[in-house]
Write a structure and sequence with these properties.
The chain is mostly beta strands. It has a single domain, classed as Jelly Rolls (Sandwich). The chain is about 0% helix and about 45% strand. The protein is built from no helices and 16 strands. The strands form 4 sheets. Strands 7-9-15-11-13 form a 5-stranded mixed sheet, with no helix packed on it. Strands 6-1-4-12 form a 4-stranded antiparallel sheet, with no helix packed on it. Strands 8-16-10-14 form a 4-stranded antiparallel sheet, with no helix packed on it. Strand 2 and strand 3 form a beta hairpin.
């Protein structure tokens, strides 16, 4: 789930209950236009509903929940996003000990976040943007953002934040030793 604020200073929180008493994850990253929280649907029990809460300096701001891109395998995924789209998430399996490059390139301004989760540690099942194991958000419009990571032998979440545009997301084994 993500929120984008043209005025900056967004924050996102995700609760397990409608009364907003059981906080699962929150994020309030200064200096960003978009903030997000992620849920690992591979390990925790899934509650009947999640309850997001967002704040933004700019007042009305687009908020989006996404969980439908699927799986990033060996073939790149074309992702068409309109200006109103904020976030796309996908699962990616990273073989243990293998070096990978996860990247996104397109006409817009994208950011990538890799969320690592541990099946045995429930504190990792819900994470904010600040909890990402790796991120790439520096190239600006039309730049290629990339994350280099060594696989852990598990499924992880790859979050694509849309600052505006259409993209191609891919996973390749790294040729750097």
């Amino acid at each position: 789930m993500a929120v984008r604020s043209e005025g900056g200073k967004p924050s996102a929180s995700l609760y397990a209950d409608e009364a907003n008493e059981t906080l699962l994850a929150s994020s309030n990253v200064r200096g960003t236009k978009t903030d997000c929280v992620a849920v690992d649907f591979n390990h925790p029990p899934t509650p009947g509903a999640y309850h997001p809460k967002v704040r933004s300096k700019a007042g009305d701001s687009p908020v989006e929940l996404d969980n439908d891109l699927g799986i990033l395998g060996d073939e790149p995924i074309a992702v068409a996003m309109t200006e109103s789209d904020v976030v796309i998430s996908t699962d990616v399996f990273l073989e243990v000990g293998v070096d990978y490059v996860l990247s996104v390139k397109g006409a817009g301004d994208a950011a990538l976040f890799l969320m690592l989760s541990d099946a045995a540690d429930s504190s990792t099942w819900y994470q904010g943007r600040k909890d990402a194991a790796a991120s790439a958000d520096a190239k600006g419009a039309s730049g290629r953002e990339k994350i280099t990571v060594i696989g852990t032998g598990d499924w992880h979440g790859l979050i694509l934040i849309n600052n505006s545009g259409s993209y191609t997301v891919k996973k390749t084994e790294s040729t750097v030793s």
